[in-house]
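Internal QA ticket QA-208
Title: Verify multi-chain structure generation after dependency bump
Assignee: T.L.

Test input:
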Amino acid sequence: MKTQLFRNTLMASLIVQAFSFSHMATAADKIIKIDGSSTVYPITEAVAEEFQRAKGVKVTVGESGTGGGFKKFCRGETDISDASRPISQKEIDACKEAGVQYIELPIAYDALTVVVNGKNDWLKQITVADLKKIWEPGSKVKSWKQVNAAFPDKPINLYGPGTASGTFDYFTEAVNGKAQASRTDYTPSEDDNVLVQGVAGNVGGMGYFGLAYYLENTDKLKAVPIMAKEGAKPVLPSEATVMDGTYQPLSRPIFIYVNATAAAFKPEVKAFVNFYLDNAPELVKEVKYVPLPKNDYEAVKAHFKSLKPGTGFNGSPEIGIKITDLLSRIK
Amino acid sequence: MEHRASVIENLGEVRAMIKRHKRNDLLFAGLGLLCLMLGLVTLMLLFWQLIADGYPKFTLDFLTEFPSRHASRAGLLSAWTGSLLVMTVTFVTAVPIGVAAGLYLEEYAPKNWFTDLIEINVSNLAGVPSIIYGLLALGLFVYMLGFGQSILTAGLTLALLILPIVIVSTREAIRAIPVSIREAAYGVGATKWQVVYDHVFKYSYGGILTGVIIGMSRALGETAPIITIGALTFIAFLPPAPITAEPPFLNFEWLSSGFTVMPIQMFNWLSRPDHAFHINAAATGALIIVVTLLMNGAAIWMRYKIRKNIKW
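Actual output:
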């Protein structure tokens, strides 16, 4: 009887302990918490892996998407938010209301790549105007012949990211002139590998996604050189053409947003961001994204050092913006 | 003479009918077998595909390495420990609550409209999509109770998810016990609790266990609610150890730790551009299926063992 009683009180105290500990542990441990875009995830993961190995500080990275990441970020739950598009007006307001200030740091480029099936031998290049003709809202283009009379009369099958994606926002802004404006009768998927499969399995297929997914599937897909205007030089997406700014309008900067308070008062967060910017040129390339030009990383580093909070955008993506111009907008 | 002819004619008809019925019988048996095979063969093919794809990663390193950007170096360590710890919390909470609730509903509860309502609700809950539980948990555990995006939250969420399964299977196991056993126990003067604990519970133990394990193996593969409450993807350290060298020897800090689980790790690897990661995903999928099969196998074996020991 006595031992029974003892056992019961022990159990009770353990349960009480369990619950009280659940609040304490977070304060005791130094963990850098990151969440956000799945596009930026591979870069942040690579940095986190190396940083943890080098400095022994724990880093966790989630993948809730840019929007989901900002939700947590503006509640103060994360130190850093990965974003494949600039912070939106709604998110700016949410952060402001919660008193969360942020430092906006571009960390790499992503080249949106327009791809067609590997067996497509008619499309050698495409103008942005033709892309618009295909992708604009209400587009009636059903056959390749409607794009260009010289093309075969094969059905055109379109694959693209879902409407919640930052890639979708940027592509529609760059091609159709308005973010989120797109024809809707294409096959959407949040999983870029599904888009790869779709275009690869369909001679008349066409789709768009980040460069990394094309580079892993060059045996099945063909990237289409983009002409910004009629008569302009067609440009293929590559590290060189993105870095020298000729791959336009489909190359976009991607960002991390750092909680300004954490950057100022948590030495491990500061160390992590500096480590990020120092190692980005190498790690970004390794995960098949395009690094910023060297001078731009210096500018971003100086910007982070100044701890100037705020965004250089007005709540929506901008096409063809220069990193240095962007940083200089924040006073 | 006339009479005899009609009998023979009738006999022919009857034989034809029997033949027809036998043919129908055979037809249905064939159809049933085909349906069964459809499910089985699909599963086998899927499983085989996973094994064939994931084969290069069936190594010990795969289980002892943290996730990495290098597919060849990436492992499941944080994912399987996460799964194990989350399952522990689920087991510890769902089983006592579910079994007690089942026992109460079956043995103690008065039969009235209120218990009917509860019964209908429990059965319906078993069919609620799992993401709904995730949303509930996000509001309740993560924010209202302040448990955060932790192992504790995930374990409790999955516990809610499998609670209806545990309750329903407990009740079914109890119903399988003959009334005569209860009457005999009452007859020799046992109290209700003695009847329930010494007889009803002990004899239905095997059936309850089966339900518990089936529930647990469902929880193991769940992804949606875990993503909803905010599981991580990259986590390259382990939660604090539950057992320590100093008194009180038990440490509950792990409950508040961030985590990832196997299905989430698998999903992440699958969505990568680099095909080498897809091999990791296939190996993870195969592992999840193997663990689930083992759990179900254990359930069958234990039920058999326990049934054998019961002598009425």
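Spot checks passed. Chain A touches chain B through 42 residues (CB under 8 Å).
Status: verified.
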